[in-house]
Amino acid sequence: MTEKATTDQQPLHNVRFFQGLDSAALAMIAQASRKQRAPRDAFFFTQDEPATTFYVLIAGQARLSQITPEGRQVILGFVGPNQEVGIVAAIEQATYPLSLQAVTDCEALAWGSAALVRLLEQYPILALRALRMVTGRFVQLQNRYRELATERVERRIARALLRLVEQAGQCERVGVRIDLPLSRQDLAEMTGTTLYTVSRTLSQWERQGFLETGRERVLIRVPQELNRIAEDLPEASSS
Amino acid sequence: MTEKATTDQQPLHNVRFFQGLDSAALAMIAQASRKQRAPRDAFFFTQDEPATTFYVLIAGQARLSQITPEGRQVILGFVGPNQEVGIVAAIEQATYPLSLQAVTDCEALAWGSAALVRLLEQYPILALRALRMVTGRFVQLQNRYRELATERVERRIARALLRLVEQAGQCERVGVRIDLPLSRQDLAEMTGTTLYTVSRTLSQWERQGFLETGRERVLIRVPQELNRIAEDLPEASSS
DNA sequence: CGTTCGCTTGAACTAATTCAAGATAAGTGG
DNA sequence: CCACTTATCTTGAATTAGTTCAAGCGAACG
Q1: What are the pLDDT digits (tens) for B30-77?
Q2: Which residues of B fall within a CB distance of 8 Å from A125?
Q3: pTM for the whole thing?
Q4: Is the Cβ of A192 closer than 8 Å to some Cβ of chain B?
Q5: Of A138, B14, B30, B214, which residue is the least packed, with the fewest Cβ within 10 Å?
Q6: Closest CA to A33 of A131, A126, A107
């Protein structure tokens, strides 16, 4: 399941968390990692288990989610190539506050808590980098919280799709495809609604020609229209 | 409006952020601060303005809130004595992601960005402490996000009240009073609902004898009942 | 080739919002 | 101290956005 990482291709220099470190440092850091693969649907870690590992995703997409006591799932977001996750492993006694599950086959570099803490001590800039990272995520989550508290479902779905375009958009001839398996249920769990409402909303948009959908597949033909819905702009007039 | 802080009473040793530092260090840190007062309703800082200052509240309670583009307010939480806020000032070029407004007369210690960064460098443990702090807040916010996405209004209001008891609960003869001016509108903005729904819900609870309310005032007589509603426990039987 | 899984759609329902009107309490100035 | 003003709170009635339930469709999969 795990193997020593190859250092000869420097996969870390695209990772924002490590940006600014020189090649020697990156090589050292990569050396301390182990490569880990996770097939689709496998969990990197699950909510409430001790936080022992920090990951940088190399390939694939993974889902950050929480399960409510009643068994309902809430999707907090996705992690893609060159994104890091699990900084909480730097904190002693911490447990993961959510689960990370591969939605496509994934490949990641992994560091244990001890190694991570050593890195933070050895390269003090990383501690500040980590702080900036978590703060950034915090701000994003705040905005989503506000969105959930104040916006209608339709707009929340539009926003979720636009975020997914940023995260995993793949340009096609006729628009942008969201390059990960995405069910109606997933979208519902991302926006705090039900799969029925998502289905109805997507159907409507499909009728209007904004997008095309299929089984776990969304292709956005006219992102501007989604943007208009998300931002409450006036409808484009033909004059 | 601001004056040099007095160091002779060491107000910092109760602040979790500085916990573990020796008295000499605390004195040094206090020396670098300035004392700042804010009368009720004054803003320490507002959303989107450059983050220049890190605060530790000494006295009073202040409200963290965001305003939506449409002008609706969302309350993210409260800050009380010995709690710190504005670590984002350590990040260059950052702006505050929300506003901090005094809800009672407040007194705080303040450090500018430069001083804060110097502290983080001088006492490396503080960087890790800051990381832990933000991570902790992040986890809390995640849970509230999940709550908002999955729970009914009644339960969200009960949870908000219980959190306020933790934050600003004052024991009275007949129960716990929430020791800050708290309108129905405030509670609505904390729970993503309307002031009407909050009013109806509190009225119902008052009829049931769980609490007493007044103008901007809530006294919780039977916290266990709120807890029952918040956690969906069975109703207490008299057997 | 049948079964599973994801998706759609209609119809009934309901939790919560919105609107409206009045009650209550707190400040303000004469 | 009282009248006046303002802000908060309450409650009913109408409305609605979104949920829930149910039934059926169609593509993928072993």
Answers
A1: 999 999 999 999 999 999 999 999 999 999 999 999 998 888 999 999
A2: none
A3: 0.92
A4: yes
A5: B214
A6: A107
